[in-house]
Design goal:
The structure is a single chain. The protein has helices at about 1-15, 25-35, 40-55. It is an all-alpha fold. Helix 1 (about 1-15) runs parallel beside helix 3 (about 40-55). The termini are far apart.
């Protein structure tokens, strides 16, 4: 269980501090969070993906 929590924490940190990471890594983190059972992580991941979708238009 701890490894899943560590992964979520890392994914959250990547999105929150996205300027320091490769865009593809941040997108992958957002995908993992968007499909997670964690409510905060899921909301953060979905918001990132929506923002990227708006930017692409």
């Amino acid at each position: 269980m701890a490894c899943c929590s560590d992964r979520r924490d890392t994914d959250r940190a990547m999105i929150i501090d996205f300027i320091h990471y490769e865009p593809t890594a941040v997108d992958a983190a957002a995908q993992r969070l968007a499909s997670s059972a964690d409510c905060y992580g899921r909301a953060l991941g979905l918001e990132w993906l929506k923002m990227c979708e708006r930017e692409a238009v």
